[in-house]
Specification:
single chain, mainly alpha, 83% helix
């Protein structure tokens, strides 16, 4: 039983680390915002889709205003809602 729990824990950590690396690699630019917006459009209606839509809108606005840190924060929040 302990071995199974250990294997499951290692798998979860690996998945989490992989997800974090993918999120960190995303630059806030028009291409990534567009790609994320397309993913959001394909989501089923619900709280996550609504939150992601608000965040991607905020990311787009921050990009237009030349606020890269704000843009990246909102983009990451939007991406997290799509997972």
């Amino acid at each position: 039983m302990r071995a199974l729990l250990l294997i499951a824990s290692i798998g979860a950590l690996t998945t989490t680390a992989s997800l974090a690396q993918n999120l960190e690699a995303r630059e806030c630019n028009a291409a990534n915002i567009g790609s994320t917006a397309e993913t959001i459009a394909k989501m089923k209606d619900g709280k996550q889709k609504a939150t992601a839509s608000v965040e991607i809108g905020a990311a787009s606005e921050a990009l237009a205003l030349g606020k890269p840190d704000d843009c990246k924060d909102h983009l990451m929040k939007a991406i997290l809602q799509t997972k």
